[in-house]
Protein backbone atom coordinates (compact mmCIF):
# COMPACT_ATOMS: atom_id res chain seq x y z
CA UNK A 1 0.00 0.00 0.00
CA UNK A 2 1.27 3.47 -0.79
CA UNK A 3 2.19 5.55 2.26
CA UNK A 4 -0.12 8.33 1.06
CA UNK A 5 -3.11 5.91 1.05
CA UNK A 6 -2.72 4.73 4.65
CA UNK A 7 -4.83 7.56 6.18
CA UNK A 8 -7.65 6.63 3.79
CA UNK A 9 -7.97 3.24 5.53
CA UNK A 10 -8.58 4.66 9.02
CA UNK A 11 -11.19 2.83 11.10
CA UNK A 12 -12.69 4.15 14.33
CA UNK A 13 -13.64 1.55 16.95
CA UNK A 14 -16.55 1.85 19.43
CA UNK A 15 -14.01 2.66 22.16
CA UNK A 16 -12.88 5.71 20.17
CA UNK A 17 -9.54 4.29 19.03
CA UNK A 18 -8.41 4.99 15.49
CA UNK A 19 -6.56 2.32 13.47
CA UNK A 20 -4.81 2.66 10.10
CA UNK A 21 -4.11 -0.32 7.85
CA UNK A 22 -0.46 -0.56 6.75
CA UNK A 23 -1.25 -3.23 4.18
CA UNK A 24 -4.23 -3.54 1.88
CA UNK A 25 -7.22 -5.32 3.52
CA UNK A 26 -9.35 -7.49 1.23
CA UNK A 27 -12.59 -5.72 2.15
CA UNK A 28 -11.77 -2.63 0.09
CA UNK A 29 -12.94 -2.13 -3.50
CA UNK A 30 -10.58 -3.77 -6.03
CA UNK A 31 -8.32 -5.12 -3.26
CA UNK A 32 -8.57 -8.78 -4.32
CA UNK A 33 -7.77 -8.02 -7.98
CA UNK A 34 -4.91 -5.70 -7.03
CA UNK A 35 -3.52 -8.25 -4.57
CA UNK A 36 -3.70 -11.04 -7.18
CA UNK A 37 -1.83 -8.90 -9.75
CA UNK A 38 0.81 -8.05 -7.16
CA UNK A 39 1.38 -11.69 -6.12
CA UNK A 40 1.53 -12.80 -9.76
CA UNK A 41 4.11 -10.10 -10.48
CA UNK A 42 6.23 -10.83 -7.39
CA UNK A 43 6.33 -14.57 -8.10
CA UNK A 44 6.89 -14.30 -11.86
CA UNK A 45 10.35 -15.90 -11.55
CA UNK A 46 8.79 -19.21 -10.42
CA UNK A 47 5.58 -19.21 -12.47
CA UNK A 48 6.78 -22.06 -14.72
CA UNK A 49 6.39 -24.55 -11.85
CA UNK A 50 4.50 -22.55 -9.20
CA UNK A 51 1.50 -20.63 -10.57
CA UNK A 52 -0.39 -18.53 -8.04
CA UNK A 53 -4.05 -17.75 -7.48
CA UNK A 54 -4.57 -15.03 -4.88
CA UNK A 55 -2.73 -16.34 -1.79
CA UNK A 56 -2.48 -19.94 -3.03
CA UNK A 57 0.61 -21.23 -4.81
CA UNK A 58 0.49 -24.59 -6.58
CA UNK A 59 3.87 -26.28 -7.01
CA UNK A 60 4.09 -29.03 -9.60
CA UNK A 61 7.29 -30.97 -10.21
CA UNK A 62 8.33 -33.85 -12.41
CA UNK A 63 11.52 -35.82 -12.85
CA UNK A 64 13.96 -33.97 -15.14
CA UNK A 65 17.54 -34.65 -16.28
CA UNK A 66 17.97 -37.67 -14.03
CA UNK A 67 16.64 -35.86 -10.94
CA UNK A 68 13.72 -37.53 -9.15
CA UNK A 69 10.34 -35.85 -8.68
CA UNK A 70 11.12 -35.42 -4.98
CA UNK A 71 14.49 -33.81 -5.68
CA UNK A 72 12.92 -31.43 -8.22
CA UNK A 73 10.08 -30.61 -5.81
CA UNK A 74 12.59 -29.71 -3.08
CA UNK A 75 14.46 -27.52 -5.56
CA UNK A 76 11.22 -25.81 -6.58
CA UNK A 77 10.31 -25.21 -2.93
CA UNK A 78 13.73 -23.65 -2.31
CA UNK A 79 13.31 -21.35 -5.32
CA UNK A 80 9.82 -20.34 -4.18
CA UNK A 81 11.01 -19.56 -0.64
CA UNK A 82 13.92 -17.53 -2.05
CA UNK A 83 11.50 -15.59 -4.28
CA UNK A 84 9.33 -14.86 -1.22
CA UNK A 85 12.35 -13.71 0.79
CA UNK A 86 13.51 -11.40 -2.00
CA UNK A 87 10.10 -9.69 -2.25
CA UNK A 88 9.94 -9.05 1.51
CA UNK A 89 6.18 -9.57 1.20
CA UNK A 90 5.79 -11.61 4.38
CA UNK A 91 4.70 -9.49 7.33
CA UNK A 92 4.59 -9.81 11.09
CA UNK A 93 1.16 -9.11 12.65
CA UNK A 94 2.46 -5.82 14.15
CA UNK A 95 3.31 -4.58 10.66
CA UNK A 96 -0.25 -4.96 9.36
CA UNK A 97 -1.97 -2.15 11.27
CA UNK A 98 -1.14 0.64 13.70
CA UNK A 99 -2.99 2.58 16.35
CA UNK A 100 -3.66 6.22 15.58
UniProtKB/TrEMBL annotation:
This is Reverse transcriptase domain-containing protein. SUPFAM superfamilies: DNA/RNA polymerases. Pfam families: RVT_1 (PF00078). Residues 5-81 form the Reverse transcriptase domain. InterPro entries: DNA/RNA_pol_sf (IPR043502), Rev_trsase/Diguanyl_cyclase (IPR043128), RNA-dir_DNA_polymerase (IPR053134), RT_dom (IPR000477). PANTHER family: REVERSE TRANSCRIPTASE DOMAIN-CONTAINING PROTEIN, TRANSPOSON TY3-I GAG-POL POLYPROTEIN. It comes from Phytophthora fragariae.
